[in-house]
Amino acid sequence: MTTGILVAILVFLVLLILFFISTYNRLVRLLNEVKNAWAQIDVQLKRRHDLIPNLVETVKGYMQHERATLENITQARNMAMRPGSVSERAQAEQQLNQALHNFFVVVENYPDLKANQNFLALQEELTSTENRISFARQAYNDTVMNFNNVIQMFPTNVVGAMFGFKEQSFFEVENVGERAVPKVSFQ
User: Which of 54, 57, 169, 177 could link 86 by a cystine bridge, Cβ 3.0 to 4.6 Å?
Assistant: First the structure.
């Protein structure tokens, strides 16, 4: 009888160890997926940051009187390129989005610029990049949600806490104005 109890205890300990190992490995895999999803956003943000100087150079000749608008874009781009936490980067990107929005509003006053092929190509490229950023943000937030769910649920939360796994931040729009549907006008 003591052998049976000893075997049962050994089986229980082995199962417990296997549980901890598999849970730890799952958490590591999910955390790596979060990091990969963030890297995909970073790639698209870099692409946008690289397009902006070309866009600014293309319009400089047309927009002599709009130097402040161009400087705001450049300044916002430089801030967005600085390393930081997800929330800091999200805030910097929101400021860059606002500067770009203001820029495109001003562009409406320059019909020759709107007809320029270089400008149109860069604008199309920027629009395409914005769509890619949007998809990458969605994928990142989905991955973060999955990771956060796992580390908050019992019993994986016990293993996560033991090994220092922390909730990850979502890439959220904090500016209420950015949630509004943009007005499109064909005049």
Answer: 169
